[in-house]
Each structure stands twice: as C-alpha cells, then as structure tokens.
Amino acid sequence: MSKYSIGIDFGTESARAILVRVENGEEVATSVYTYRDGVIDEFLPGTDIKLEPDWALQNPADYIEALKETIPELLNKSGVREEDIIGIGIDFTSCTMLPIDKEGTPLCMLDEYRDNPHSWVKLWKHHAAQPEADRINEVARERKEDFLSRYGGKYSSEWFFSKALQILNEAPKIYQAADRLIEGADWIVLQLTGKERRNSCTAGYKALWDPERGFPSKDFFRALDPRFENVVDEKMSKDIYFLGEKAGGLTTRMACLTRLKRGTPVAVGNVDAHVSVPAATVTGPGKMVMIMGTSICHMMVDKELRLIPGICGVVKEGILPGYYGYEAGQSAVGDIFAWFVKNCVPGEYFEEANKRNIDIHRVLEERASHLKVGESGLLALDWWNGNRSVLVDADLSGLLLGATLETKPEEIYRALIEATAFGTYKIINTFEENGVKIRELYACGGLPERNKLLMQIYADVTGREIRIAASSQTPALGSAMFGAVAAGKENGGYDNIIEAAKKMAHLKEERFIPNEKNHLLYQKIYAEYERLHDYFGRGENEVMKKLKEIKKASKE
Amino acid sequence: MSKYSIGIDFGTESARAILVRVENGEEVATSVYTYRDGVIDEFLPGTDIKLEPDWALQNPADYIEALKETIPELLNKSGVREEDIIGIGIDFTSCTMLPIDKEGTPLCMLDEYRDNPHSWVKLWKHHAAQPEADRINEVARERKEDFLSRYGGKYSSEWFFSKALQILNEAPKIYQAADRLIEGADWIVLQLTGKERRNSCTAGYKALWDPERGFPSKDFFRALDPRFENVVDEKMSKDIYFLGEKAGGLTTRMACLTRLKRGTPVAVGNVDAHVSVPAATVTGPGKMVMIMGTSICHMMVDKELRLIPGICGVVKEGILPGYYGYEAGQSAVGDIFAWFVKNCVPGEYFEEANKRNIDIHRVLEERASHLKVGESGLLALDWWNGNRSVLVDADLSGLLLGATLETKPEEIYRALIEATAFGTYKIINTFEENGVKIRELYACGGLPERNKLLMQIYADVTGREIRIAASSQTPALGSAMFGAVAAGKENGGYDNIIEAAKKMAHLKEERFIPNEKNHLLYQKIYAEYERLHDYFGRGENEVMKKLKEIKKASKE
Questions:
Q1: CA nearest B480: which of B19, B78, B15?
Q2: Who among A346, A347, A401 is closest to B399 (CB)?
Q3: ipTM, two decimals
Q4: So, what pathway does this thing act in (chains A, B) (predicted)?
Q5: Which of A166, A238, B139, B330 gets the most CB atoms within 10 Å of its CB?
Q6: Which CATH architecture best describes the domain A282-473+505-555?
C-alpha cells in the first residue's frame, strides 16, 4: 500500500499544494488556492484606509482558507485515503511576519486592532522598514557586531527585526499588544499543531540567529531602542527547531478543517527557496541550486563556514542538516524580461505571437536564438531592481550599452538575458574566490521550463552544465519531502531529508551543456561586464545614485 | 513690379524648389520632385549589378528631371512671368560627387561606363571609402600636414578625396576616363550656365582647399598614390568662386528646359546646411544655427580663425563673406527618435495615436512633457550612430543608464531627447572653451517645427534662447537669397547676402526661453553626462569599440 505526503507552498499570490507518493515522489494531485486579498498594497481590505508607499501586506485568513480548500481537493482528486497521508510539510515566503495574541490569533483578526495596518501580515516585499534597516546596520557597524559578516555585510529592510522595529516605531500599541511576532511559516505550523516550533531557516537567515551564538545580545537591541531590548524574550522564542524535525501532530480542529487524520505529523516550517534544494536532488556541496523566476535565489551548502562578501546569508543547518547553507540572489531576472515585454516591444511582435498563438517571450526567444554570441554588440548591467548579490545595493539601476540605429528588440532581449547570466556568473565567481567550489548548476522555478535559450546562455556564460528539477512545483515537493521526514521511516517515511531526496526528487533528462566556443567568447564580454560592474557598482562612478537622488528631489 | 528669385535644394530623396518675392522673402510657390531612382544602395538601376555594403549612389538624370519639373511648376502655380525671375540659386547635399567627361556628361550616362558603379554619383552617405579616408589621415599625420587641424583632426570617408581615391583604387579606368571629378552642386551650376564655377564651400569643407593656402601639395597627393599626384590639376580646378558670386547666365538649352529666360543669373552653388545660415537670419558671430533633422549640423561664423578640436571644419568664407565659417555636427538626432519609435514603443501607444489621429511622436512628447527634469532617473549617451563632434568617432555606440522596473517608454524617449541636447551643449561648450562665443541659438529643419518639447529641452539644457527660422524650406530660401545676390542690386536683387538676409530671412515669433530652474538641474545631470562622455569617449574604457570588434568577428 503506497503512502503519501502533502506539501504546501505559501507564495505571494497563491498557495500551491501537492500530494506526493512517498516511495518515488510521484505527484499524484495538485491544488492551487489564489488568495482572496492577494498582496495588499493600496487599502486595507474592506476599508478606505490607505497604505503608505512601499507597504505590502497579506491577510492571514487567506492562509487558513488555502489549507481548507486545497487539502480536501487533493484528497478528492487523488482518491487517496486520509490514513495513507503520513505527513505534511509547508514552506512560506520569507521574511513574512505578523503579530499574534496569546491564543495565536493574528491581531488583524481582532476588531480592536484590524484598522491599524501594523496588525496585519507584513509580506516579504514590504519595503517600508528601510529606516529601521538603516538603523540596524548603523548600530551593528558601530558596535562592530560580528554577525553582519554572515549576511554579506548588510541587514535587509525585508528582514525580521527591520519589520519588528517598524511596528515598535510606528505602532507601539500594536507592538505592546502582540504576545508574539512570528514568521508566517511558523504561524501555520502553530495553527496546524498547536505548537510554536520556530524553524532554524527563517531564524537564521532573517532574524540573525545562529545555532552556536543564538540571537544578538540584549545590548545590541537596547542600542537600537531601549524598548526593543527584550524583543527576543518578550515577542519571540529561543527554542529553534531544525529543518527535518517533526513540529507535532495535526490538531483535532485542523483535522476537521482539512479532512486529514488527527495527529498526522507536521514538519517544522521552511522557506520556499531553501526547501527547493533537496527537491532539486541536491544534498551536498559543489552544486548550486538556482530558483529562477521573477528573481533568482542561489542556494549552496558547504561543510565549511566561509564569509562571502555580498551574499544574503550563511546559516548553519539553514538548508540541510550537517552543512552551512548559503543564500545569494539577483533581485530581478524574470521581472526584467517582463518589464521589457511590457514597455519596449513593438506591436508587430505581439501580432506575430497572436497569429501563431504563442507567447510573446517565445517570439523574442526564437529571434534572439538566431543571434550569435556578441553579434548584437550590446552589453547590459542587470540592475533594474538594484543589485542584491554581490553588491547589496538597491540604489543601482539598469544599464544598456552598445545600441545603434540597427539594434533590434530581440537583440536587447538577448542582451538582458545575458546580463542576468553575467550576474549569476559574478555570484558563482565570488563563491569560488572565497573557497566554495561550484561544479554544477541545478535550476528550478518557472523560467527554466519556459525559456531554453536562457538556460543555454546560462550554461555558456558560466561554463557549467545545468540540470533542471523534474518537478514544476519544487518548493511544494520539498515540503512534501520534509513531511515524509517528519513522519519518519517507522511510519513509511524517511529518516532524513537526504534519504527522502534520493527517492522523491528527480531531474529532467534534458541537460544544458556549455558550448566551449561560446563560453570563451562570453569570457571576453564578461570581462567588460565585470569592469562596468565594478566601475558603477563599487563607488568609482556614483552616477546611478546621483540620478536617484535627483529623481527623489524632483518628486518633492 | 515685384521681382522674384528661385532656390532649389537638392536633397537625399528629393529636390525642393521655391519661388520667392525678392523684396520680402515671401514664399510664393513651392514644388517638390522626388527622385525616381532615389538613393541607389542595392542594384544599379535597371540592372542586376549589386552594390557592396556601405555604397550609396544617385542618378544625375534625376537632378535634371528635377529642374525640368519644378521650375515650370513654380511658374505655373505662381503665375509669375519669366522676366520677373531675376536669379536662381541652388544648394546640394555634400560631398556628393561624380565623374564627368569633357562635355560635362556624367560617365554613368555613357553606355561604355554605365555598368561600372564608380561611374555614378557618389552620394554624401556613401561610406565605402573608409580605407581611403584612413589612408589620407595616416599620410597627413605622418607628413604633419597642418590642414588636418582645420577639420577637427580627421578627414572623413564622406569627403571628396576619399571618394576620388576610391575611384582610382577600384576603377582606374573610370578615373582615367573622367575629364573632371566634380561636386553635384558645381555640376548643376555647370549644367545651368555652361561654366565650371566650383564653389568655396564644398572646396573648403570637403576638399581641403583654403583661400590662402589653396589645395594640399602635390607631394601629399603623391604620397597617397603616385597616380593621384596631379588629381587637382587633372581632375579638378584651382579656380574657386566665393559664395554670393554669380556663376553665369542660364544657357539657351536650360532656358528651354526650365521655361526661364536665357541669361537669368545663376549663383555659385552651395551646401544645404551652409546656405541655411543666412536664411535663418544669421549674418554674424555669436549665433549658432542648428539644422535639425535626422542629424544636426551646427553652423557658426567668427572673425577669427580658431582651431577647435572635434569640429567638422573651419573654412574662410565658407559660409558668409568676411568670416571664418565653422561646422560641427551630431550624426544622429531625429534618427534616434525614429529608431526608438520603430523598435521600442508598445502597440498601445500607437493605438492611442491612431485613435486621436495624431503622430506617435506627439503621444510620446505629450507624455514626456509631464515629466519633471530628472524625474525619470535616466541618462543616455546619444551615440546611436557614433559621435561626429567633438569626439569624431564612428565606433562609439548608444548608452542608456538608470532604468528600473518602473521605467516607461516616454521616460526613455525624453532621456534620448535630453541626450541629444547634452550632445549639442558639449559642442557649444567646446566652441566657447576655444574662444568662439555663442550667445543665441537659431534652429531650422524638420524637428523644431514638430517637437516643441525638444526645443524647450534644448533651451533649458544649453541655457540659451532659441529662435526658429520662419521658413520651413530654409535651404531653398537661402539658395533663392543667393540667387537674388547673383542678380545684383541693379537688377532688383541685392549687393550681398547680408542685405538679402535683412529683407528676405525671417524668424517665427515663438521663442524658447530657458527656464532657469531647469537649467540648473540640467547642469547637474550634464555633469554626469560629461563624465560618461569622457569615460567612454576618450579612451578610459574602450568597451564600445571592443564590443564592435566582437560583433564584427561574429559575422565572419
């Protein structure tokens, strides 16, 4: 009798759930729930309370609704019986956090607080806590806190303490009223199991926690704000659970809601990018996993701790047991191509796409694929949304160089793809220069399935073979794998994620093998990329920042 | 009884003729003749003889046809009698040159030679003589010829001796067979009057002639090629006539063809950009005339000879009597906006243009005009077709910097306009730094009439008031003015071009006054433009050239 596990990936616009056969990872059923309130960035739902710029909230009711809708649908679609579901795993965007009361109820669900935007879930891309992030960086540098070096030298406005401090600064009553500030991943696990089981991944990557050193000192938090001194003790928890551990069993209430068996094992929560690593078959060093979509997350594990400048973070046990987990990233990839298609592509290209009933990206890809390396004479810097790694600078901007009166849209399209490949290559080289070797690349996410040219360009630019994860739902598969690990071998699951990956994770047959001739040509062009990268990115010419200052001033 | 003169502007695709009242410059009638063979850049007309890349020819029969069609039409339309036409002037693109026999017949009109492309008219934008231009520059530099300094340090592939030397190199028989090599302007005058009256403008700007020093030495030409030693004596003429002189009277044959009176005075030929200066009312120093279309020509006169790096040329009496005439230029302006509209503007903008029945440029201009200075955060280098002044480098290419995921097409459009304005400002500043003061700007050509935003941006960037020539046919008006000067005061015309300009040239009422606040903001952005200009344009980072080399190699 086959056993099954369920993985749910809580994304930005929707939650995607899959039901997977434990013995071989076969995806038996899929269910998607699109959040009713989606990304809240204009008005609080059902009110005329307007949000400030850079705000991005979610409604936690959407998460519960997702559980209620998707899990029964998985059972219905597959015909699998509830007793054959041996485990559940979930992953979440991060840092996505919320204030809750003693009972675990989000403050935004209480009449008393719901009109205050700070009572809602702050989504990962809520960018309004930049002043707090600046303060954290300033104080950390002043105090010579050594944790900054594990985060590429900079704490982000997206992360936990920036958002927590913003609540304290702007809504002290909400801060006061919150019994807990908690990551979305951990809140769902709390809902499912009734237990607060904070995971090592978000704690490590977003909240400065380290298994050996714990959280930063009270002195540090006091230096940020005296009221913030005891944030960890008062609003969080020092009990951190490692990935692969069982958080608990499904509560009676949640069993009713989801139609699963009470007590079904639930794994400790995880983050979408991190959970994708074993789902892409990677369980050891030397292999970089790229989660490729609107942006790219670059994930690596290594036995050694290396402080690599400009990465997002390195966390012990942050991705896989027994390894240091490294995360780096590019803040816009698919987003750049989407911008280009929306703003820079003539109508005749869309007409062709319509006529042939194919996507506009296919039209551009097809035309771009006829170009030889270097034929366009174009070179771009992929900084349309700043640079996350390795410059860690949101104020950088995009550059296109080499245009002539003969330049065609498909040439620009290809130059933009190449620019993002150069950006990834720069990250790879930075890892290697700092002692972390990368032999192969593993890709998952939406882009690799949609754009073969892009994958070939990445292989040619980086000079490395690229394999593609077989699942098109890599995070949900990874969560299901952790669900099977939470169940344990004795219940038909696995002892650890390595074993689960051996059986449940697969690759497509397709390989992207670097073309040596193209790689050599790209080396030449990359040398020019790197020179511009350093010229504009490392302070030699601050024109991008100056233009942003002028832009800001023009709006005042 | 009013007197009239006729001006004909021989352009790239057509000839534009106007009939003008001499006393006040009123344009009484207009006639346009579109050349049947247009620009010949693929096959010789009526043959399958294919041209090499970068070739651009014309058929001289088109010029004669233009005379035959337009002049009678002017008479018909206006009802003016032939005896009231006191003079004719013509201007031409340049350097546009052709080989002719002893009778003045173009070699391409003779069966013996017509299958050889070198027997045809080489149009100004025939760029296939680059190897010859390189040779001229190399030899001139080796021999330390001082004339190069009058041409911004570089002789162009478009100019007379490059083209002549190409004929010698590639078609020695044509070179041999040619009794004369002659500019199109001078050939038309020869046709009209039966007299070879080479003009000082094309001789000076395109053929290295100087009223005091004459042509370069025989030694120089011999160093280029021993067969080229006597090119001036054998194929040209040392008799050069100044602008404003009368070339002769209309021949009987031409009188029949045009229905004008035999003996009607014909002015010495001129060049489109140069003839526009007095037609834009400018007859002295301090005022720069910009002929604004696909590219911009910047024309100045000054009492002193200044050697200004990177201009196209300075020629004594090259524009107006008694002055040194300066020419500089930008190789692409309107061409960049046309490229942008063709390659980078989404269909919805065209839909709006269609719906409102306005030009697509109006839609972009309207949207761009709502942007404040600096609001887009974009900055461009206007080098889509290289840089003519002041870098004199065809291998430079376009750059756009500052793009974000929010960047809109109208923002890029405005940034491109601003980039061309910065390019003009750089030219103005280079003139001023070398002692030629520029107080005001005068614009003519297609762009000023069509794009008010562009004109205001030029005023704001340069901090100078801009006036617009009243005539939309400035070159033809200028030619008609020179026609009236050729007639002389005694025949109802004028003694000189200054007097003609006082009466016949006018400005529109409209003035573009620089906005001081915008000018100050633009100064900041221009400082960034200038830094990038020097960084990419003066050898610090040769990335544009390297990319062009890679591009070239990719096609081999």
A1: B19
A2: A401
A3: 0.93
A4: Carbohydrate degradation; L-arabinose degradation via L-ribulose; D-xylulose 5-phosphate from L-arabinose (bacterial route): step 2/3
A5: B330
A6: 2-Layer Sandwich (3.30)
